[in-house]
Amino acid sequence: MRNIRIGDYLVEQGLITQEQLEKVLEAQRDAQGTKRFGDVIVELGYLSETKFTQALAGKLKVPYVDLSTVDIDEDAVRKVPEALALKHTVIAINIQGRRLTVATDDPINFNILEDIKVSTGMDTVPVLATKSAIKKMIGKHYSMQNVDSVLEGVSALNPVEDEDDDGSKDRVDSAPIVKLATTIVENSFRADATDIHIEPFKTYTRIRIRVNGDLVELMNVANQVHNSLTTRLKLISGMNIAEKRVPQDGRFTQVVDGTTLDVRVSSLPTVNGEKIVIRILSTGQIALRKITDLGMSDYNYRMFESMIKCPHGVMLVTGPTGSGKTTTLYAALGELAKPNVNVITVEDPVEKQIDGINQVQVNTKAGMTFAAALRSILRQDPDIVMIGEMRDSETAEIGIRAAITGHLVLSTLHTNDAASTIVRLVDMGIPPYMVASSLIGVIAQRLVKVLCPKCKTARMSTPDENKLMKIDHSVPIYEACGCPECNNTGYKGRTAIHEIIHCTAGISTLIADNAGKEELENCAKKNGTKLLRENVSELVQQGVTSIDELVRVTYAV
Question: If we measure between CA atoms, which residue out of 175, 232, 183 comes closest to residue 209?
Answer without folding.
Answer: 183
